[in-house]
Write a structure and sequence with these properties.
Elements: H1 2-26, H2 38-47, H3 51-57, E1 65-66, E2 77-80, H4 111-117, H5 120-136, E3 141-142, H6 166-181, E4 186-192, E5 204-207, H7 210-217, H8 219-226, E6 232-235, E7 239-240, E8 243-244, H9 249-259, E9 265-267, H10 276-281, H11 310-317, H12 323-339, H13 354-367, E10 369-373, E11 388-392, H14 417-425, E12 430-434, E13 444-445, E14 448-449, H15 460-473, E15 476-482, H16 505-515, E16 519-524, E17 539-543, H17 550-558, H18 580-583, E18 590-591, E19 598-601, H19 610-616, E20 633-635, E21 639-640, E22 644-645, E23 650-659, E24 665-675, E25 686-695, E26 700-708, E27 714-716, E28 721-723, E29 727-736, E30 739-748
Parallel strand pairs: 2-3, 3-4, 4-6, 5-7, 5-19, 6-9, 11-12, 11-15, 15-16, 16-17, 22-30
Antiparallel strand pairs: 1-2, 7-8, 10-17, 13-14, 18-19, 20-23, 21-23, 23-26, 24-25, 24-29, 27-28, 29-30
The structure holds beta-D-glucopyranose.
Length: 749
């Protein structure tokens, strides 16, 4: 705390000095001079502003914009969702569509898919492309990426995030943020923090021990800020220590701005602010969406009454708030505007370009995970090319870019899986389709409609019978099902009701497996699903929400144009009881007596995802890090560049990996660290490095992965610092969290 105060004093002093220098050296218009450092320009602008102008800067003026300083020519700030495409424009003060004809975008694969590529270069490309689309549309802040950790597979918003592991999410978020911001568009990393389920999202109060907070739930945010240089952060809806995360002393003042030195702006989630004194004192800089639930109901034109509007002015007038607090917020928002809207050197961006479609398809190709492939049923082609393929399932035809909440998009085009398969099959393979089941017919969100009529008057029995009869006649069956973007599936503001597939799909899959042994199941979801039929189905593919190029990416994998190289960024448990939060009954929380607060205690602590499975020795359905290829990789013996590591620099592990199949492919080599005789209970092993390597048939590469002292450190809650314990560690290198190929011991001195 003392440090924090000192920091604050030093900063104020430096800013005052910069300000004086700015005024004396450069006269009135210094803030317009792009050749001057941003800090000087910000101070100059701030010194010219009235209190009202500062207040106007720190809260919304419409659904997605906040005011600049018109008198000084400082432009408004425009935000947009995020995180996998640029949302269509809504009316000034309504959620209804603005009805623009130039706001259709490319939908990129959802972030679960990006994480499944395990390829930071893919994240950089992704960030650059989506930043260009935002730029072209004149947006300054992209409301994404989301990096909340997958704690329960029921969280309706997991599809927008990067999986269950803090290390993987940290490595992937940094290039995304950098790519976006290269365009003069701010990434707004969300939802900070502990927003790990959607049910009761506005009134859930999370209790989590400090070590778990720092080791599991914060690292990706920290990396986005300290390595990615994120210019803005979105506060979450939920509460922590009984304060809403959007104005939370611990998360925002102490950790984000204090410990991590964040100099950007904290933006509230839409409707996430609840209190003026807290909003003033506890770190919120820019308030949006008040009196809405973020998606629906709202008071029309309420902006003057926002917590950081007139009520703040009143407190200033009454001497209950300091101008210093207002200046700090205005300064941060000005900095955001200077970095984005006022950056006149930024490019024009581009939208719906061939390059963006190409990137979306490549990332989709790289993120699809081949979960199972008995007898090499896939890829389709070669000697066993079928003459007749039957495609079954609603998700083969349903557009998935509309729905799911605020990430819903209006796309220029979307290739369905069935269309992608038909295009890849060409004329030589006949492709037939049977619906199989009716799931959710809706195809509308916020006035954007898919235009698809998915109605079908047949009964479930009739649909099943038709599919099974056709399956018996086909050479191969591809079932394309899973979840969708409707409420209580993969959708904001709701959680799923269970792990199982909805709409009777399990029964249908079992029946298809009986009718035809050449069955491939393609599961489309942003979450793990239960697969009671897993043993009866020879090939299973995990395809996520892949966006505009969904069908083409799926076909690229099914027909072997691309060899799969995605790996799961999350554990697929057999049943919910195999997940820590559920096993301990620590979800969805307990209603507090006499209050509408729902308390959730993260009782499983560090044991999230594979850490729970390791600790309890529970075999998952498919493990974190799992993913097959059409070729085979052989791992040699791992070696370390030293036996004793003194904590300086890094220790490097090398392992030869050979492609011993007959086609090119890529493998994600993963390094987990385990600690022998840890002085405190610790996970069995934790991901601390990975490398994706591309290999031609017969080729061997030596893969090298380094870890440093930070990677070996744990958070000591008592001393409130990171500490690396001396002693023996083991590096476990393998193809997934449950397929370790080679281990090396070393000592930390
Ligand atoms: C969501 C945010 C989103 C915002 C603006 C909220 O409901 O939680 O993720 O960016 O709305 O649409």
């Amino acid at each position: 705390m003392e440090n924090l105060k000192k920091n604050k004093r030093t900063k104020v002093f430096m800013l005052a000095a910069a300000c004086l220098c700015a005024l004396s050296c450069h006269g009135r218009e210094l803030y317009r001079d792009a050749s001057r450092p941003i800090e000087e320009r910000v101070e100059d602008a701030l010194s010219r502003m009235t209190t009202r102008e500062k207040i106007d800067l720190i809260h919304a003026q419409s659904k997605f914009s906040s005011r600049g300083v018109p008198r000084l020519g400082i432009p408004d700030l425009w935000c947009t969702d995020g995180p996998h495409g640029i949302r269509p424009d809504v009316l000034w003060d309504e959620w209804d569509q603005a009805g623009c004809t130039n706001d259709s975008c490319v939908a990129f694969p959802a972030l679960t898919c990006l994480a499944a590529t395990w390829n930071p270069n893919a994240a950089l490309t992704y960030g650059r492309c989506i930043g260009e689309e935002a730029r072209y549309r004149g947006k300054d802040v992209l409301l994404g990426p989301g990096v909340n950790i997958l704690r329960t597979p029921l969280n309706g918003r997991n599809f927008e995030y990067m999986g269950e592991d803090p290390f993987l999410a940290s490595v992937m978020v940094v290039p995304y943020v950098k790519g976006v911001q290269e365009n003069g568009v701010a990434a707004c990393v969300k939802h900070f923090a502990l927003n790990n389920n959607e049910s009761n999202r506005h009134n859930t109060n999370v209790t989590v021990d400090d070590r778990t907070l720092y080791e599991i739930y914060l690292p990706a945010f920290k990396a986005a800020v300290t390595e990615g240089g994120a210019w803005s952060i979105m506060g979450a809806y939920n509460l922590y220590k009984d304060q809403h995360a959007c104005h939370n002393e611990y998360l925002l003042n102490n950790i984000l701005k204090g410990e991590w030195g964040f100099d950007g702006a904290v933006i509230s989630d839409w409707g996430g602010a609840h209190d003026t004194p807290q909003a003033i004192s506890n770190g919120l800089d820019l308030e949006f969406g008040t009196w809405t639930d973020g998606l629906g109901a709202g008071t029309v034109n309420a902006y003057d009454n926002y917590y950081l509007a007139t009520p703040f002015v009143n407190m200033l007038n009454d001497g209950k708030a300091d101008m210093e607090d207002l200046d700090d917020k205005a300064r941060r928002v000005l900095r955001l505007i200077f970095r984005t809207a006022m950056d006149h050197s930024k490019g024009d961006g581009e939208m719906c370009s061939d390059a963006h479609y190409e990137a979306a398809r490549r990332i989709g190709d790289e993120g699809i995970v081949l979960l199972k492939n008995d007898n090499r049923l896939l890829p389709i082609g070669g000697d066993k090319t079928p003459r007749k393929i039957l495609v079954v399932g609603e998700n083969a035809i349903k557009m998935m870019t509309v729905g799911g909440g605020s990430s819903s998009l209006k796309v220029q085009r979307e290739c369905s899986p069935l269309d992608g398969i038909r295009a890849a099959a060409g004329n030589s393979i006949a492709v037939d389709y049977a619906r199989g089941y009716v799931g959710d017919l809706s195809g509308e969100y916020n006035g954007v409609t898919t235009g698809q009529d998915l109605s079908d008057s047949r009964s479930a029995e009739e649909l099943l019978e038709e599919a099974v009869a056709k399956a018996a006649e086909a050479d191969m069956v591809i079932f394309i099902g899973g979840l969708n973007k409707s409420w209580r599936q993969d959708c904001e503001d709701s959680d799923r009701s269970g792990l199982e597939l909805p709409y009777g799909q399990d029964r249908l899959i079992e029946a298809l497996a009986e009718a035809n042994r050449n069955l491939a199941v393609v599961n489309i979801s942003g979450n793990p699903v239960a697969m009671p039929w897993v043993k009866k189905v020879p090939a299973i593919v995990q395809a996520w929400y892949l966006g505009s190029e969904a069908g083409n990416s799926i076909a690229d994998i099914l027909f072997g144009k691309v060899s799969p190289s995605g790996k799961l960024p999350m554990t697929f448990p057999v049943s919910l009881a195999d997940n820590g939060a559920h096993a301990l009954d620590a979800y969805p929380g307990t209603k507090r007596d006499g209050s509408d607060i729902v308390d959730i205690e993260y009782k499983e602590g560090l044991l999230v995802g594979y850490r729970w499975h390791d600790a309890k020795k529970i075999k998952p359905l498919f493990a974190f890090g799992h993913g097959l290829s059409y070729t085979d990789f052989k791992y040699g013996k791992a070696v370390a560049d030293r036996k004793e590591f003194d904590g300086n620099g890094s220790i490097t592990f090398k392992i030869p990996v050979t492609n011993c199949g007959d086609r090119a492919g890529a493998e994600v080599v993963q390094l987990y660290i385990s600690r022998k005789d840890s002085p405190v209970p610790s996970p069995v092993k934790e991901l601390k490095g990975f490398s994706k390597v591309w290999l031609e048939p017969g080729e061997t590469k030596e893969v090298s992965i380094s870890v440093d002292k930070d990677d070996l450190s744990r958070f000591d809650a008592e001393k409130h610092c990171w500490t690396a314990d001396r002693g023996e560690y083991t590096a476990q290198i393998g193809a997934s969290s449950d397929d370790i190929k080679s281990t090396v011991k070393f000592n930390l001195k």
